[in-house]
Amino acid sequence: MEVIIVREDRIGDLVADEIAALMARKPDAVLGLATGSSPLRIHDAVADRVAEGTISLARARAFTLDEYVGLTEGHPCSYRTVIEQDFVSRVDLPTDAVQGPNGGAADLPAACASFESAMREAGGVDLQILGIGTDGHIAFNEPASSFTSRTRVKTLTDQTRLDNARFFDGNVDAVPVHCLTQGLGTIMEARHVVLVATGAGKAEAVRQLVEGAVSALWPATILQHHPHVTVFVDDEAAAQLELADYYRSTYAHRDSVIR
Which of 84, 123, 206, 235 is the most buried (most CB within 10 A)? Predict the structure, then answer.
């Protein structure tokens, strides 16, 4: 796991660098897209580069992480709507090349199975973008989620619904109780995972992710067993890391050539 501690305003460009390098070597790459506040700077940076002509996503495919159950099609808080507005509409990624779990399906388990099949048929995710919840959840894999879980129906914790109420005009009662989410086992199959966390509110979750014991109580800690994870955090989110100075030193010498 590589931990990169930088100013928040640099994170978007640094992740865009990773995406640009991927698209240069594999123009038909598969991206894993995330919603929420953490990826917004990434969306902005990639959109700027598409506009400049330095990145093209025209041949790419993408899968989203999760979706609320029961929201009407086109609901402003539906993750499909959010990813369309925040990212897809601003780049050259074809709308029909983006797929997410169908939270409005009559048969939710079948919808989850179909989503998993589509990811396999696409060849798997090359680069997965993640945020992290204050309780250590990634996607909507709440504490005590199975490390081998696949896309499935989950019940959201009160904390997650409270955290997400800001997207529902502050009304926690409007936040759905259930969702569909990629499982931890599904996420672990991505070839490169990029996780972004900023702000003091994420400091404990980041500490557990990077330096804590691997535990289902902190679902993101499963990423310690992934072979290629890059964690981008600002100073506030890194505040509880015991080895923060080491991570800064490692990044400062990232491009050095060892002879």
Answer: 206
43 is catalytic: no
Give the residue from 133, 46, 63, 56 showing the smallest Cα distance to 92. Answer: 56
Q: Which two tokens stand for residue 164?
A: 């997400």
Amino acid at the residue 74: G
Residue 197 carries which side chain, given as an amino acid letter?
A
Active site residue 142: yes
First vs last C-alpha separation in the chain? 23
Is pTM beyond 0.90? Reply is yes
- For residue 42, how many other CB atoms are within 10 A of its CB? 25
Q: Does 67 qualify as catalytic in the annotation?
A: no
Active site residue 189: no
> How many beta carbons lie within 10 A of that of residue 15, not counting itself?
24
Structure-token pair, residue 67: 């979706």
Q: Which of 67, 86, 126, 135 is catalytic?
A: 135
From the candidates 66, 86, 126, 163, which is the catalytic residue? Answer: 66
Q: Which two tokens stand for residue 84?
A: 């369309």
Is the alpha carbon torsion for 167, 75, 161, 5 positive or negative?
Answer: negative
pLDDT digit string (tens) for 121-163?
999 999 999 999 999 999 999 999 999 999 999 999 898 899 8
**Selected catalytic residue, list 86, 126, 137, 163:** 137
The CA-based angle 134-135-137, given to 5 degrees, is 100
Measuring CA to CA, how many Å separate 45 from each of 7, 19, 48, 105, 202? 15, 10, 5, 33, 22
Give the separation between CA 94 and CA 62, rounded to whole angstroms. Answer: 9
- Catalytic entry in 67, 86, 126, 142: 142
- Per-residue pLDDT of 93-106, as tens digits, reads 999 999 999 999 99
